[in-house]
Amino acid sequence: MRVLAGFATDIGRVRQGNEDCFLAESPLFAVADGMGGHRGGEVASHLALDTVEAMHLRGEGTLADQVREANRVVYLRSSEDRKVAGMGTTLTAALVDGDGLHLAHVGDSRAYLLRAGSLRQLTDDHTLVNRMVKAGEITREEATVHPHRNVVTRALGTEPEIPVDEQSVALLEGDRILLCTDGLTGMVTEDQIQAIMESTDDPQESADRLIRAANRAGGIDNITAVVLDVREGSDEGTEAGTVSANPRSAVAAIPKRGSLRKAGVTLLVSVAVLTLTALGLRIYVHSQWYVGVSSDGYVAVFQGVPATPLGIHLSTLQTEYKDLLGADVASFDLYKSLPNGITANSRADAEAIVTQMRADVVTQRAIKGGPSPTATPSAGAVP
Q1: Residue 34: what are its φ and ψ, rounded to 5°?
Q2: Is the pLDDT of residue 241 over 50?
Q3: C-alpha span between 154 and 141 (Å, rounded)
Q4: Which long-range contacts does 277-282 make (Cβ < 8 Å, 24+ apart)?
Q5: How far apart are CA 344 and CA 328, in angstroms?
Q6: In the chain, which residues fall in CATH 3.60.40.10?
Q7: Would the pTM of this model clear 0.85, i.e. be above it?
Q8: Over the stretch 301-314, which tens digit does the pLDDT of each residue have?
Q9: Distance CA 114, CA 335 (A)
Q10: How many C-beta neighbours within 10 Å does residue 62 have?
Q11: At residue 187, what are phi and psi to the nearest 5 degrees?
Q12: What's the topology of domain 2-231?
């Protein structure tokens, strides 16, 4: 088996610096989310991953041993350097070993396994709300809106010694692994994550789309995603790339003079150019997706572009969500452009946007004590 990797990190839309850090040096992959202010968090996450990588290259200890050493190094630096006192970091590391994946984990970054249409969280969040959920004090739904949902109960560098969660997973061809920080999971639901990960075969494109989804949802934290694909073949791997094409318009000029034959040739060329332009436009339109409002006032997914030049619709309604009124969703600042159409990269991206809209409406109604919507999508036709 071989593993193809895609990875991306982003500052988000609110933070002034990126305290996230990732490691992608096959067969070792990891993500870390630093804490303790911009400087402290950045130092902690980089120092932790540098320690893990250095020990791995020297062949020292197990993955869990390397994470424990990273904790010791970060703790000592925090104790000795007043400029970064109190810093810490989460760390979720994965080591591919033949047909197996070894995990070592501390904090609330996560590892997921997407297999045969099912997304499963492999790691356990070391957070206050997760502890409350396990104790039966709150539900998982309540945990997503709890005021203390970001309180971490275990992190590297905060104590001289910490327990490290360990796990081994047998890998199968077709598996997709995701390592990510809470800047992703705090903004994008697991249903959205699965939809995005299933929307493309390219792990790099999948990582990029996850980052865009988190930013589109608000991007209130740094965001990091490492996507690993298990493929058949040797472990040498291959390079993957994508080619994108944009439609180009052309203007045909009518000759001011010349023979009838020349005019005829020019006319044929002009018709051919316009035909190709129309074909290119049609291909382009059918490759576009957006979320808008149906003629009945409900949130809907459309294929095409949100425009009607000369009264001609350049989109078709694909799915209408009768549990989501467009006016209700557009009342959120984040979705105020809904009536004009919120563009998406694919149908999966568009559906992921709708899923996030529903989650936001559920949260708002929970706060106000109103009923939550129930998903009732229906197929549509031309709006």
Answers
A1: -75, 155
A2: no
A3: 22
A4: 277/247, 277/248, 277/249, 277/250, 280/247, 280/248, 281/247, 281/249
A5: 20
A6: 2-231
A7: no
A8: 999 888 766 557 78
A9: 29
A10: 14
A11: -115, -25
A12: Phosphatase 2c; domain 1 (3.60.40)
